Amino acid sequence: MAVMSQRYDCADRQDRATGIAAATSAIRRGALVVLPTDSAYAVACDAFRTSATAALREAKGRAADTALPVLIAAPNVVDALTYGLPQIARDLAAALWPGPLTLIAAQQPSLAWDVDGSKSVGVRMPLHPLALELLAATGPLAATGANYAAMPVPLTCDDAQRQLGDAVAVYLDAGPLHGDRASAVVDVTTTPPQLLRAGSVPLDHLRGICADLVAE
Q1: Of 154, 157, 122, 145, whose CA–CA distance to 19 is shortest?
Q2: Measured between alpha carbons, how far is 45 from 144 in angstroms, rounded to an integer?
Q3: CATH architecture of the domain covering 6-215
Q4: 81 close to 135: Cβ distance less than 8 angstroms
Q5: Is pTM, for the whole model, over 0.90?
Q6: How far is Cα of residue 12 from the mean position of the Cα atoms in its chain?
Q7: What does the pLDDT look like over 23-70, one tens digit per residue?
Q8: Which end of the chain is more exposed for a tag (fewer CB within 10 A), N or C?
């Protein structure tokens, strides 16, 4: 028998607290959660549970080797997930976290997880209070847009639920989001660092932090 999803209106203080608790419990048992981020709704799971990351990819209709970015609650967590992070990456994070910046960095080789088949990982600290509250309770989450393959990334919880349905255990509804804060993506595994996507961060702002940033 299928388990029905739970949905919480996080504009209501009590529902928000109940929703965070339910989402934390769902993450700990390996289930999926939809939550708001800077620009859109994301679907997330325990980054260190391979059955959960497999379920996330299946829910989205993605291949088993699809890379999954990782969300964190505090800048210092990046050192537990990455290896040899250069100073320029720390400068970028200090200027833009929490906010629209994803760093592609070398994975910490000791980690047992399945977020990326390569030796790198995308890490971001989102600028949304609900996301940060959940991350503080759960630890790092593998997360990506809460859309089914080839569908638009949802800006409302309704749209996320229409696309992913009961594959997700808990939906945290924070109201409509603005799709204009897509993160800049900077690869710091190369020297000099390479801009893979400018997102909502102007190039001159990025180069004010990292003067030798390569942008194609």
Answers
A1: 157
A2: 10
A3: Alpha-Beta Complex (3.90)
A4: no
A5: yes
A6: 24
A7: 999 999 999 999 999 989 999 999 999 999 999 999 999 999 999 999
A8: N
